């Protein structure tokens, strides 16, 4: 996967995860164009479209559009399921997730995404394992260990 | 940036927030990375899986070159170490993958590669998933290193596919066992050619199971279930197509896709159309794909979603072949009328390519292209209309039709500029072919073109000016009118330099040059050498690396690899095949002299040896070709898949010069290219041919020229034979054609008045001097064309000599070195019976006979 974008019906970007190195300017340009293209699609149209030299897979959940850009040889249907799995994970974690949850807890959303996908590839497909890992990280944060290696900075 | 390290330091529990900050906000090239790298190193070294995991995530998220330099050596070790936790192994694998993608040179292959392959057997499916992704990417650049993964992947895959739904527990997704892993394993298998029989058997079983499962009723109504199941199915089909070796599987896959073509869900229809495109290029399943043509055409007409319609167009293009070309092109044209503007250019290119490739009848091709211009003129790029002009010039039989069609099309009140360009060019070259008809007389043609003149862009006007000067040459009666136009102030003082220059020069040329010189300067365009269709190149450029044509070539390359060893390059798929070979019945020249010895005497034939001294029998159909050249001097003499021979000749009295052009139609060199002129024993003393040797190496796509100096010593009946031998690839090629040097080439037209004609006619009244032939007309009996042929034959056409105006009368002198022979001819047509009577009277019997025979063939 090259990148994943989450945006609302009004075109506001809620989450962006880039798996390829691009400059800020390019990212903004791509986001703008893609958001326009996807928002222009009608409801009954199919979930795939060709854009530049990439394939775009998108799905709308309530007020949020989940949009992934994959390469030519990647499997589109499985990407749809990646999106769905991610939504399931969010749902399980936040309990009936809605857009507000993602806005206010975006760092959790990113963590969950990182446990699920890494470097653009699916890492762990077991829902249990992903959620377990997130729980552990949460615990770590809450317990507030004093010996944090990052203090060496 | 300064407060950041402070913040990280102060809030110790914000390690996670710190990493998040880094991965989301810090640009790959930030200097802060160096500081961060240190911290990461420490985290990696700690044995705490959470810290290690976080560190790996950070590396994977940023993935900069500095990080790669720092960690690319470490991570493989972590990956294969026995005591690493599963979750860390997963992260390590994907982290390595990310680093490899950004800096492949910094990730060296090593001992760890074989251990990574064994991760495919790991218990933890998460580890297997991550490892499979890693291996798939690495294997593309280093296939040898990871060859062993193929059998492991195959067995893993079959275990998953055949497992019950409770086996894999949490890895079962809506009743589909480990769909992501299955898809990845299938993708890994696509990096390699079909495996050895042992593994292949198991793999085939596995694929069949997947195909079978697709037919079973679904275990859940949820769309997730069907999506996951179908994701595996589509990937399996991709693998089947990639292997392209099991006809049974291919046909099954095709049928499955056929079912999906009419599925309720748009997504599945879209994917089915897409997958079928690749299936269409496999020889095993091409026929099966064609059976769905009606469904696809229906989809094209009724689908609401433009992207699905676009896939349907692509599929039609891929499945097109000779049997359904006309239907498909017609459908694509009607779709074009309502198509989205963004995709029009691509459709135009595709239609142009299909029309050319599968044209049996070139009139259809001309119609299609003109339709294209009419429907979507703006999107018809230059390559397309250049090509149609090239083809019309190269093929005589379609020139008249093209002129007529273009003339009619131009009469439309609003026609596209591209049509004016094409029309202008074609009428300039071939307007004479329709000038006989009063509705398309020269003046009418000129007025028609000129009426569009002011509406056109500069480039088109320049082209039209060239057409006007050609008209002056073809139709002297229009000279005054056209000169008037050229002389107009708007041309001679035109702001555009090109137009002004052309107007001035053409005006001068028409005033100063005699008709001969004008005729030479503005002679008909010689045929173009065949080369790769630029349209194909343009389409490839537009579509990018994954067009169907590319897939075909890639397949061919891959199969060459699998078979091992160098193969002689097949006739390149890129050079446009020439259906004219089929039209004229020439076919491919026989590669080795295996045929029966030819009938004309005096030729060297050695049927059993492969030695270069043997001469191939005359290529079939060379008689027809020969006849075409009796009345004209330029054209394509012979063409097959490899070679094209063009001629251009000029004659003066008893001397002549012929330029023979040999065009290499392939992209491979011809070696030891030797053309030889062979004159039979009877011919030898009467015709003298001199030529210089030709360069024995002819590069791919190149054209070489040979000059032949001809002298007619005395009258002759037979024709010399041109024999060409060369090596192409590993094969030895041998082609023979008759060279159209005929007696009438040395015919000089003589004008004479009616009295003189009848005087001489009476003088030549002895029976040996007259030869008469009554024959059925082979071609339509058109007066203009007949006149043109007689003039082309070399004779002067005498008007008002014969009391019957329908008859044609001609006179001329045959020049030889030794003597000059006067010839008179009279051609009487009988339209009702569609027959002719031709009478030839010359002072020498042999000449009369030969000329009569030659000329009779022309009508």
UniProtKB/TrEMBL annotation, chain A:
<dbReference type="GO" id="GO:0030121">
    <property type="term" value="C:AP-1 adaptor complex"/>
</dbReference>
<feature type="domain" description="AP complex mu/sigma subunit">
    <location>
        <begin position="1"/>
        <end position="140"/>
    </location>
</feature>
<keyword id="KW-0653">Protein transport</keyword>
<dbReference type="InterPro" id="IPR044733">
    <property type="entry name" value="AP1_sigma"/>
</dbReference>
<keyword id="KW-0168">Coated pit</keyword>
<comment type="function">
    <text>Subunit of clathrin-associated adaptor protein complex 1 that plays a role in protein sorting in the late-Golgi/trans-Golgi network (TGN) and/or endosomes. The AP complexes mediate both the recruitment of clathrin to membranes and the recognition of sorting signals within the cytosolic tails of transmembrane cargo molecules.</text>
</comment>
<keyword id="KW-0813">Transport</keyword>
<keyword id="KW-0968">Cytoplasmic vesicle</keyword>
<dbReference type="GO" id="GO:0005905">
    <property type="term" value="C:clathrin-coated pit"/>
</dbReference>
<dbReference type="InterPro" id="IPR011012">
    <property type="entry name" value="Longin-like_dom_sf"/>
</dbReference>
<protein>
    <recommendedName>
        <fullName>AP complex subunit sigma</fullName>
    </recommendedName>
</protein>
<dbReference type="InterPro" id="IPR016635">
    <property type="entry name" value="AP_complex_ssu"/>
</dbReference>
<comment type="similarity">
    <text>Belongs to the adaptor complexes small subunit family.</text>
</comment>
<comment type="subunit">
    <text>Adaptor protein complex 1 (AP-1) is a heterotetramer composed of two large adaptins (gamma-type subunit AP1G1 and beta-type subunit AP1B1), a medium adaptin (mu-type subunit AP1M1 or AP1M2) and a small adaptin (sigma-type subunit AP1S1 or AP1S2 or AP1S3). Binds to MUC1.</text>
</comment>
<dbReference type="GO" id="GO:0035615">
    <property type="term" value="F:clathrin adaptor activity"/>
</dbReference>
<dbReference type="InterPro" id="IPR000804">
    <property type="entry name" value="Clathrin_sm-chain_CS"/>
</dbReference>
<keyword id="KW-0472">Membrane</keyword>
<dbReference type="GO" id="GO:0006886">
    <property type="term" value="P:intracellular protein transport"/>
</dbReference>
<keyword id="KW-0333">Golgi apparatus</keyword>
<dbReference type="InterPro" id="IPR022775">
    <property type="entry name" value="AP_mu_sigma_su"/>
</dbReference>
<dbReference type="Pfam" id="PF01217">
    <property type="entry name" value="Clat_adaptor_s"/>
</dbReference>
TrEMBL record, chain B:
<dbReference type="InterPro" id="IPR002553">
    <property type="entry name" value="Clathrin/coatomer_adapt-like_N"/>
</dbReference>
<feature type="compositionally biased region" description="Low complexity">
    <location>
        <begin position="570"/>
        <end position="589"/>
    </location>
</feature>
<feature type="domain" description="Clathrin adaptor alpha/beta/gamma-adaptin appendage Ig-like subdomain">
    <location>
        <begin position="627"/>
        <end position="740"/>
    </location>
</feature>
<keyword id="KW-0813">Transport</keyword>
<dbReference type="InterPro" id="IPR008152">
    <property type="entry name" value="Clathrin_a/b/g-adaptin_app_Ig"/>
</dbReference>
<keyword id="KW-1003">Cell membrane</keyword>
<feature type="compositionally biased region" description="Pro residues">
    <location>
        <begin position="590"/>
        <end position="599"/>
    </location>
</feature>
<dbReference type="InterPro" id="IPR017104">
    <property type="entry name" value="AP2_complex_asu"/>
</dbReference>
<dbReference type="Pfam" id="PF02296">
    <property type="entry name" value="Alpha_adaptin_C"/>
</dbReference>
<dbReference type="InterPro" id="IPR009028">
    <property type="entry name" value="Coatomer/calthrin_app_sub_C"/>
</dbReference>
<keyword id="KW-0168">Coated pit</keyword>
<dbReference type="GO" id="GO:0072583">
    <property type="term" value="P:clathrin-dependent endocytosis"/>
</dbReference>
<dbReference type="GO" id="GO:0030122">
    <property type="term" value="C:AP-2 adaptor complex"/>
</dbReference>
<dbReference type="InterPro" id="IPR050840">
    <property type="entry name" value="Adaptor_Complx_Large_Subunit"/>
</dbReference>
<dbReference type="InterPro" id="IPR011989">
    <property type="entry name" value="ARM-like"/>
</dbReference>
<dbReference type="InterPro" id="IPR016024">
    <property type="entry name" value="ARM-type_fold"/>
</dbReference>
<keyword id="KW-0472">Membrane</keyword>
<keyword id="KW-0653">Protein transport</keyword>
<dbReference type="InterPro" id="IPR003164">
    <property type="entry name" value="Clathrin_a-adaptin_app_sub_C"/>
</dbReference>
<comment type="similarity">
    <text>Belongs to the adaptor complexes large subunit family.</text>
</comment>
<dbReference type="GO" id="GO:0019901">
    <property type="term" value="F:protein kinase binding"/>
</dbReference>
<dbReference type="GO" id="GO:0006886">
    <property type="term" value="P:intracellular protein transport"/>
</dbReference>
């Amino acid at each position: 996967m090259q990148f994943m974008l989450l945006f609302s019906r009004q075109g506001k970007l809620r989450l962006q995860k880039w798996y390829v190195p691009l400059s800020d300017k390019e990212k903004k340009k791509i986001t703008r164009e893609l958001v326009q293209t996807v928002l222009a699609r009608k409801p009954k149209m199919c979930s795939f479209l060709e854009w530049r030299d990439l394939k775009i897979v998108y799905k709308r959940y309530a007020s949020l559009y989940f949009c992934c850009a994959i390469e030519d040889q990647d499997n589109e249907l499985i990407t749809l399921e990646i999106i769905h799995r991610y939504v399931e994970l969010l749902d399980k974690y936040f309990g009936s997730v809605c857009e507000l949850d993602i806005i206010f807890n975006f760092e959790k959303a990113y963590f969950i995404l990182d446990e699920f996908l890494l470097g653009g590839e699916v890492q762990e497909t077991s829902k249990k394992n992903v959620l377990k890992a997130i729980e552990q990280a949460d615990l770590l944060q809450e317990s507030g260990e004093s010996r944090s290696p990052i203090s060496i900075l | 940036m300064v407060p950041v390290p402070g913040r990280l330091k102060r809030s110790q529990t914000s390690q996670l927030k710190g990493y998040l900050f880094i991965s989301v906000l810090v640009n790959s090239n930030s200097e802060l990375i160096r500081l961060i790298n240190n911290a990461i190193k420490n985290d990696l070294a700690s044995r705490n899986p959470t810290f290690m995991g976080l560190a790996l995530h950070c590396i994977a998220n940023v993935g900069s070159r500095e990080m790669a330099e720092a960690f690319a050596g470490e991570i493989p070790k972590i990956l294969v170490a026995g005591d690493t936790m599963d979750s860390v192994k997963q992260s390590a694998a994907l982290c390595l993958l990310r680093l490899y993608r950004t800096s492949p040179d910094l990730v060296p292959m090593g001992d760890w590669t074989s251990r990574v392959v064994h991760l495919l057997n790991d218990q933890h499916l998460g580890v297997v998933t991550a490892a499979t992704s890693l291996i798939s990417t690495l294997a593309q650049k280093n296939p040898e290193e990871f060859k062993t993964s193929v059998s492991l992947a195959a067995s893993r895959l079959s275990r998953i596919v055949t497992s019950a739904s409770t086996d894999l527990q949490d890895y079962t997704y809506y009743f589909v066992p480990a769909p992501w892993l299955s898809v990845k394993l299938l993708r890994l298998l696509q990096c390699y050619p079909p495996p050895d029989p042992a593994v292949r058997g198991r793999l085939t079983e596995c694929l069949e199971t997947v195909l079978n499962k697709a037919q079973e009723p679904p275990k859940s109504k949820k769309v997730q279930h069907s999506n996951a199941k179908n994701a595996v199915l589509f990937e399996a089909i991709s693998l089947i197509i990639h292997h392209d070796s099991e006809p049974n599987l291919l046909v099954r896959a095709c049928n499955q896709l056929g079912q999906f073509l009419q599925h309720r869900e748009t997504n599945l229809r879209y994917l089915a159309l897409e997958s079928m495109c690749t299936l269409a290029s496999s020889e095993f399943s091409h026929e099966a794909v064609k059976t769905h043509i009606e469904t696809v055409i229906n989809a094209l007409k009724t689908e609401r979603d433009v992207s699905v319609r676009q896939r349907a167009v692509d599929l039609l293009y891929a499945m097109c072949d000779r049997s359904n070309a006309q239907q498909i092109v017609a459908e694509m044209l009607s779709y074009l009328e309502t198509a989205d503007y963004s995709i029009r250019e691509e459709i135009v290119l595709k239609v142009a390519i299909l029309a050319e490739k599968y044209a049996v009848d070139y009139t259809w091709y001309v119609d299609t292209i003109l339709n294209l211009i009419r429907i979507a003129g703006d999107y018809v790029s230059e390559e397309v209309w250049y090509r149609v002009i090239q083809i019309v010039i190269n093929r005589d039989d379609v020139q008249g039709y093209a002129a007529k069609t273009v003339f009619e099309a131009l009469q439309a009140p609003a026609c596209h500029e591209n049509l004016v360009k094409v029309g202008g060019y074609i009428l300039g070259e071939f307007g004479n072919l329709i000038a006989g008809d009063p509705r398309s007389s020269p003046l009418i043609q000129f007025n028609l073109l000129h009426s569009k003149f002011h509406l056109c862009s500069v480039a088109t006007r320049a082209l039209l000016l060239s057409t006007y000067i050609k008209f002056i040459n073809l139709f002297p009666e229009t000279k005054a009118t056209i000169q008037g136009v050229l002389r107009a102030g708007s041309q001679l003082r035109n702001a555009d330099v090109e137009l002004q220059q052309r107007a001035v020069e053409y005006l001068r040329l028409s005033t100063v040059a005699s008709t001969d010189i004008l005729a030479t300067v503005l002679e008909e365009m010689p045929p173009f050498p065949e080369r790769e269709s630029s349209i194909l190149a343009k389409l490839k450029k537009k579509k990018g690396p994954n067009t169907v044509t590319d897939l075909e070539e890639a397949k061919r390359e891959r199969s060459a690899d699998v078979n091992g060893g160098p193969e002689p390059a097949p006739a390149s798929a890129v050079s446009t095949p020439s259906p004219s070979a089929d039209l004229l019945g020439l076919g491919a020249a026989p590669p080795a002299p295996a045929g029966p010895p030819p009938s004309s005497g005096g030729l060297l034939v050695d049927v059993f040896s492969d030695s270069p001294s043997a001469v191939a029998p005359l290529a079939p159909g060379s008689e027809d070709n020969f006849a075409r050249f009796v009345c004209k001097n330029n054209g394509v003499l012979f063409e097959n898949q490899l070679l094209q021979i063009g001629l251009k000749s000029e004659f003066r009295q008893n001397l002549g010069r012929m330029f023979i052009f040999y065009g290499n139609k392939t992209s491979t060199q011809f070696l030891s290219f030797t053309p030889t002129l062979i004159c039979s024993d009877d011919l030898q003393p009467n015709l003298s041919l001199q030529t210089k040797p030709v360069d024995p190496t002819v590069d791919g796509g190149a054209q070489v020229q040979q000059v032949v100096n001809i002298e007619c010593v005395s009258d002759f009946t037979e024709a010399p034979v041109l024999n060409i031998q060369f090596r192409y690839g590993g094969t030895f090629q041998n082609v023979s054609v008759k060279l159209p040097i005929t007696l009438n080439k040395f015919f000089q037209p003589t004008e004479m008045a009616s009295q003189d004609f009848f005087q001489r006619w009476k003088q030549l009244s002895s029976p040996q001097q007259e030869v008469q032939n009554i024959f059925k007309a082979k071609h339509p009996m058109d007066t203009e064309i007949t006149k043109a042929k007689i003039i082309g034959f070399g004779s002067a056409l005498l008007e008002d000599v014969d009391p019957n105006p329908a008859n044609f009368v001609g006179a001329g002198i045959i020049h030889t070195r030794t003597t000059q022979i006067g010839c008179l001819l009279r051609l009487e047509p009988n339209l009702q019976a569609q027959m002719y009577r031709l009478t030839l009277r010359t002072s020498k019997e042999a000449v009369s006979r030969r000329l009569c025979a030659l000329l009779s063939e022309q009508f």
